Amino acid sequence: MTRSSDNETRALALGAAAVVAAAGFGVLAAAVARRDTARADHAVRKRAAPRRGHPARKAAEALKPAGKWWTYIPSALGASLYVLRAAAPPGEQRPRSRRTGAGAVLLAGVVATALNPAFDRFLPQPPAPPGHRRRRKPVFPSGHAFGPTAVGLASAYVLARERIARPGIAYPAALTIPAVTAGARMMQEKHWASDVLGGYLGGFAVAAACVAAYEAAGER
User: Fold this and answer.
1) How many helices (H) and strands (E) does the chain have?
2) What band does 135 get if pLDDT is binned at 50, 70 and 90?
3) Segments making up each domain of the chain, as ranges
4) Residue 219, pLDDT above cutoff 70
5) How confident is the model at residue 174 (pLDDT cuts 50, 70, 90)?
6) Given pLDDT bands bounded at 50, 70 and 90, which one contains residue 194?
7) Is pLDDT at 57 greater than 90 in this prediction?
8) How far is the first Cα of the chain from the last one, in angstroms, to the nearest whole number?
9) How far is CA 168 from CA 165, 172, 182, in A?
10) Nearest residue to 56 via CA among 180, 197, 196
11) What share of the chain is helix, strand, coil (3-state, %, to 5)?
């Protein structure tokens, strides 16, 4: 298989994955709007939320800024610059694909940041969990899961594809970050489990679409 056909195959597979994830997000959003997820959400909340004053809950409060756009956009920018400046493989010139890879990572962060307020405005929302004072506050999907998942997975894919980082390190790190940021919000009763799942699905869709464009560019 030539490099060009390999890139095309990867782009198609990633595009299909983005469509499937986006469809899953839509199905979940509809279920949340109908309150079909309410029973499961309440059951998970009882198990996931420590009592008030518990040290774990205080630790979760300290993680509140993590997962906001002003943390993952700088992270996306930093990852993009790292991709651009990373040393080339031994005996090779720095690949031109590094530029599109860096752009894909930054694009994932920008798209996630742009979509968050749109979700808050246009998606039907469930009642907010008891950790919020206002019951009408938008909570679906969890931005603490959505943005970090989009940036983390896009970064991991590009770093692994460009042979800058090992997949066995890049992907676990990319998955751990949104698990921590969103899990902390669940511990504070700021998000339902369905909010977090929606954030993961949406973030995966954005990341897959961005790296599909990177593969389609085929600058290898």
Assistant:
1) 8, 0
2) confident
3) 3-217
4) no
5) very high
6) very high
7) no
8) 14
9) 9, 7, 22
10) 180
11) 70, 0, 30
How would DSSP label each residue in 68-111? SHHHHHHHHHHHHHHHHHSPPPTTSPPPTHHHHHHHHHHHHHHH
Q: Look up the pTM and report it.
A: 0.94
As a residue count, the chain comes to 220
Residue 143 predicted with pLDDT over 70: yes
Separation CA 186–CA 180 (nearest Å)? 10
Residue 3 has pLDDT above 80, yes or no: no
- 155: helix, coil or strand? helix
198 vs 136, more confident: 198
Question: Read out DSSP for 122-152?
Answer: HS--PPPPTTSS-TT---SS-HHHHHHHHHH
- What does the alpha-carbon distance between residue 182 and residue 32 come to, in Å, rounded to a whole number? 18
- Tokens 């998000």 belong to 191
Which amino acid is present at 135?
R
Element spanning 190, H or E:
none
Distance, in Å, from the CA atom of 170 to the CA atom of 135, rounded to the nearest integer, reads 38
Q: Are 209 and 12 in contact (CB under 8 A)?
A: no
| Burial track 47-77 (b if 16+ CB lie within 10 A, e otherwise) | ebbeeeeeeebeebeebeebbbbebbbebbb
pLDDT exceeds cutoff 90 at 180: yes
Listed in sequence order, the residues at least 6 apart from 19 whose beta carbon sits closer than 8 Å to its beta carbon are 205
